[in-house]
């Protein structure tokens, strides 16, 4: 709700944003069975990954809250009006940091850019299910074929 009234700024103070979302905005968190928080970002948080991971692990304990991260890799040459992040990491390091954070929060990680999807836990799960179905189908076909040959 409150996020709709915010304007884009240059901070990547993820820990502060998460604290606000969890400690202020989820006032009635105990009344809900499951809740999810989505972090939409383009870069590495200002804080160290282990600090954020420890916070979200503690914050998510006790009720069903999951933190999901959508990382958008911006193409080089994009103008950010002189905003320089407090920390810098290349896209692979940034993705790795957010994967660690979502693991601590039992969430999902999605990484995409203008070129398409680089990585997505949801898509990986779907592909895994499809592989299982294909393997099961092949085993069934083999079983049916072996039964036909016995007859």
UniProtKB/TrEMBL annotation:
Please, which domain of life does this record's source organism belong to?
Eukaryota
Q: What is this protein called?
A: VWA3A protein
Name the source organism. Leucopsar rothschildi
